[in-house]
Amino acid sequence: MAPAASRILISRIPCGETRALSHQKVLWLLLAGFVALTFALSVLNPIWEAPDEPAHFQYVQLLAQRHQLPTLNEDLPGLTAADRQELHQPPLFYLLAAPLVLPVNLNSNPSWLLNPYFTWPNHPLRNGIAVHMVAEQWPFHGQVLGVHLMRLTSVLLGAATVLVVYLIAVHIGLGSAFALLGASIAALTPAFFISSSAIDNDNAAILCSSVTLLSALVTLRQKRRQWLGFASFGACTGLALLSKNDALFLLPVGALLAAVVAIRDCLGLSSWYAVKRAALH
């Protein structure tokens, strides 16, 4: 009787709700898989072997130790003479990473040695920019632990971005299945995947920019209290600009959003028709 009763209850669940539940499970599996894989890459990839990682590390270390923002005149050590400093970058990513390493002595257990054979033709050590020592092995301590904690910040920011990409697709009205496809493409994009496993301020900029675009879509759907939508868009744009200067592209997006809402409200058009009208003019 119990199995028969359960079958009756399941049969009464609308097909759309059952499909939505399955899509949610797939989404959480996708996010869990993304976190697991990017975390594994962050642990397995030797430290300093991601682009500009030494300079990003120095920025976070300065914040964690001095508890103040740097000036452009700071002369931070680089792993190579060609290392560019990242002190000109907005501070949001570094402010997010710094609290994780506050309990860590970043000056202990150092592994900071340039590989003199980097890029030498046919040399067995030509592929690594740094010499990787026993200090980098598990269990992590000091400077090495700090690097992996900073990388963990990127892992979490990347996972949040994948979730926001899913929500953007849902708000466009493309359905959960298409939203899962979009989130999967974002998660498996090689450059984004690798960036999410390294110390890189791009991860904060990508997340904040994605949330800004999501807030724009939510604003387009609103009929009342539109000022809340514009306030949200402005706040998210500000956070994106605090992540990276490249987020300046969001300013014309805000102007387009205001034009679309104005056309929609004045002419009584649908949001998407208003978007086309604003784009044509």
Helix/sheet category: mainly alpha
Helix content: 55-70%
Strand content: under 5%
Order of helices and strands: HHHHHHHHHHH
Total of DSSP H or I helical runs spanning 4+ residues: 11
Mean pLDDT: 82
Rg from Cα:
23 Å
What kind of sheet is the major sheet?
none
Distance between the termini: 66 Å
Question: Based on the structure, what is the oligomeric state of the protein chains?
Answer: single chain
In total, how many beta strands? 0
- Note poorly predicted spans: 5-13, 276-281
Dominant shape: globular
Q: Would you write up a description of this structure?
A:
The chain has 281 residues and is mostly helical. It is 62% helix and 0% strand. It has helices at 2-11, 15-44, 53-66, 92-97, 142-172, 176-188, 190-195, 202-221, 226-241, 250-267, 271-280. The longest helix has 31 residues, at 142-172. Mean pLDDT is 82; it is low at 5-13 and 276-281.
List keywords for this structure.
single chain; 281 residues; mainly alpha
List the helices and strands and how they pair.
Blueprint: H1 2-11, H2 15-44, H3 53-66, H4 92-97, H5 142-172, H6 176-188, H7 190-195, H8 202-221, H9 226-241, H10 250-267, H11 271-280
Helix pairs in contact: 2-5, 2-6, 5-6, 5-8, 8-9, 8-10, 9-10, 10-11
